[in-house]
Amino acid sequence: MATIKGFIFDLDGVIVDTAKFHFKAWHRLAQDLGVNFTEAENEQLKGVSRKESLEKILEWGNISLEAQEFEERMAQKNEWYLDFVREMGQEEALPGAKEFLAESQKLNLAIGLGSASKNAALILDLLEVTPLFQTIIDGTKVSNSKPNPEVFLKGAEALNLAPESLVVFEDSIAGIEAANRGGFRSVGIGNKTILKDAEIVVSGLLRTAGTQNFMKVLNPYLALAMALWAKEQILKKTTAELAYKVAT
After folding, report:
1. I need a surface site. Which of 49, 151, 181, 232 has the fewest CB within 10 A?
2. 10 is catalytic
3. pTM, two decimal places
4. Is the Cβ–Cβ distance between 151 and 137 less than 8 Å?
5. Which one of 12, 17, 138, 171 is the catalytic residue?
């Protein structure tokens, strides 16, 4: 089993809950088209691009649109979504997410974002966590939606790390499938029944009191990373001490 050297995070449902904004915007659009749209349908759109999401809604309603109207509908949905997003503050981050990112950075783990959202950069800025990411791969940089692993593979390439040394954190079925297909380790955020194909499933990145409890949240991933980091620091210190003794 490869040493874990970094994490790649999905955005919606993992770091921030903008899924509620997507649902409101898609629901409004579906109603406008005369298509029934519930939480069940919304679940199928998680991790899917805007284009493919609209295609699914049109398929459910047995509706076809001319190319121009299709583009207009996508733009309208995004504007409705952004109206909600622009009102966000850093407090909108999911419980423990910012702490988890900061702790991961302290452990010298590589940190990347792998999201289908074309608004990922804006959202990270609003949450004030952009500096914690070494690479951001979003919907503007990929041509294939999850479950295609492209977004994660590009993240691994940008971090210059092999997929097997990276853990992907996802809240969607499509995202977990993408991680598994790409050869990544996978952690599901959410329901164990829905995300049954993830290597492990946790309810969220909530940080409990104390470092030890925090590590247990995603044991063995973070615990292993902490141990490897500590070992590396000891080795560096020992090497430095030996070098000093030789020099003197």
Report:
1. 232
2. yes
3. 0.73
4. yes
5. 12
Q: Which two tokens stand for residue 88?
A: 């966000």
Structure-token pair, residue 210 = 């104390």
Q: Judge whether 32 counts as a catalytic residue.
A: no
* Enclosing H/E stretch for 135: strand 135-137
Please name the residue that has the structure tokens 């050297």: 5
What is the CB-side half-sphere exposure of residue 57 using CA atoms within 13 A? 31
Per-residue pLDDT tens, the chain, 248 aa: give them: 677 889 999 998 899 988 788 899 999 999 999 999 998 898 888 878 899 999 999 999 999 999 999 999 999 999 999 998 888 888 889 988 998 898 888 888 999 999 988 889 999 999 999 999 999 999 999 999 899 999 999 999 999 999 999 999 999 999 999 999 999 999 999 889 999 999 888 888 874 333 344 345 444 555 544 454 455 555 555 555 555 545 55
Q: Is the bond preceding residue 220 a cis peptide, omega within 30 degrees?
A: yes
Asked whether the beta carbons of 82 and 191 are under 8 A apart, the reply is no
Cα atoms found within 13 Å of the Cα of residue 36, Cβ hemisphere only: 1
